[in-house]
Amino acid sequence: MFSGVAARYDKINRAMCFGLDRIWRGALATAAIRLANSPTPKIADFACGSGDVSLEIAKRSPAAKITGVDFCAEMLSIAEGKIRRAGFSDRVEFLMRDCLNSGLPAESFDSLTVSFGFRNFQNRQAGLAEMARALKKGGALCILEVSRAGGILESAQSFFMGCVVPAIAGVLGGNKADYQYLAKTTSEYPRPSEIEKMLCNAGFGGVCVRKFGCGLVALTTAVKK
Questions:
Q1: What pTM, to 2 d.p., does this model score?
Q2: For labeling, which of 20, 97, 100, 189 is most exposed (least CB within 10 Å)?
Q3: What is the pLDDT of residues 151-170, one digit of tens each?
């Protein structure tokens, strides 16, 4: 599915988020740099997709070294093109790996990001364990993801993701079924209290949640104990 949407992924994302995803990803990049607490941070970007977060980190921290991980070759090809055109190839590398088994050296990163990819992990608890393994003690995990808003907003979110987003994708040349799948993963994503419990079970503490878009998107940060 991700191979199929890669060519139109950025365009559809911009449209379905009304361009606000740029602001949210900027906030994610800023948090990852700040919480890395290092003049020369090593930052991993899991489920990096088309590379927007890796690019934002490289722009905002000239001393950062970034490793993007994703299992989709087509997405990584787009990401590599962005980094090359921006002139950051010496500081950003991409690896085609499964985020549940990344093969990255243990305890080697100051912070780690995931942007709208965590809900697609087949086993989220195993994913958190793998991310904890790659982080140094005191390293920060920063997850930007959809959030179950609750109440009437959750009904509106369900309608938007289930009906409006697939329609936008169709107009822009995408496959509606692919984005109906994304709506399903949104509706099945755990609530914030469940995410916090999962983080604690994976060895993280200091969980902090910042909401965006009327509570429909959340930036969750935590520190490896």
A1: 0.89
A2: 20
A3: 767 777 776 666 776 676 67
